[in-house]
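I have a small job for you when you get a moment. Would you make up a two-line entry for one protein for me to read? No commentary is needed, just the two lines. Write everything out right here, beneath this request.
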Amino acid sequence: MKLISIILHAGKVFVFFTGCTILFYYGIMWVNEEYQNYHRYDEPEGAAIKVSGGNSSEETGMIDRLILFYLNGE
């Protein structure tokens, strides 16, 4: 009787684990489907400006870039 109870409990755990795994898999597939056609590198709309370039008129040397890297952690 105890062996049957253990087997039934193991079966419940197996079904629960399998159900959660399938739910997680289809959740990940849904997220992938949502963002598959998301174009990250399209031209921005509206009055967007580029902010990551810094001063383009100023030439920075390798030492200046290294110091900036250590200071800002870029």
